[in-house]
Amino acid sequence: MTLDAERSKQSVRPSRSASAALVVRSVVPAGLNYPEYKPYLRHDFFYSCSYCTIAESEAEAVRLTIDHYEPQTAREDLVHDYHNLMYCCECCNSRKGNRCPPESARKDGYRFFRPDQDFRHEHFERKGREVTHKTNVGFLLYKHWI
User: Fold this and answer.
1) Are 122 and 113 in contact (CB under 8 A)?
2) Phi, psi of 60 (to 5 degrees)
């Protein structure tokens, strides 16, 4: 059975609300190893990097990979959890690496931007040609990527 045929049988569960969320996570089979989720991630993230939004068709020599939002080293229990996985270009995946804000920073609102749940306009703003952060969530991404 093809992925599209399989999806047509499944319902879709949105991450926030179907009308507001850009990324709508598909219902996927449970118990897969994380690399086996790649076809679902590609579809759910519109064949684009979840962080910088470069599309596969634009990426040329840049490989698109799977990022663990909560790093494997910090949360071994989430290594194969589909909702912890992001479709991501190699550049963004390398920049984020296995960084994870400590609990004390998270209490102050510092965490990485979550493309499947957060809205960019809530955390970033454009000032002329520059994109700056509006929140502590935006600050971490801005600090590590720019």
Assistant:
1) no
2) 50, -105
Could you report the per-residue pLDDT of 110-130, keeping only the tens digit for each?
888 888 888 888 988 988 998
Domains of the chain, by residue range, sit at 3-145
Q: Which helix (H) or strand (E) holds 137?
A: helix 136-145
pLDDT of residue 18: 38
Structure tokens belonging to residue 12: 């879709």
Highest mean pLDDT among 1-5, 34-38, 97-101, 110-114: 34-38
Q: Is-contact 85 68, C-beta < 8 A?
A: yes
Identify the CA nearest to 29 among candidates 48, 54, 1, 56: 1
The DSSP string of 7-51 is HHHS-B--SS-TTT-S--PBP--TT--GGGGHHHHHHHTTTB-TT
Cα 120 to its chain centre, rounded Å, is 12
Q: Count CB atoms within 10 A of the CB of residue 46.
A: 14
pTM comes to 0.77
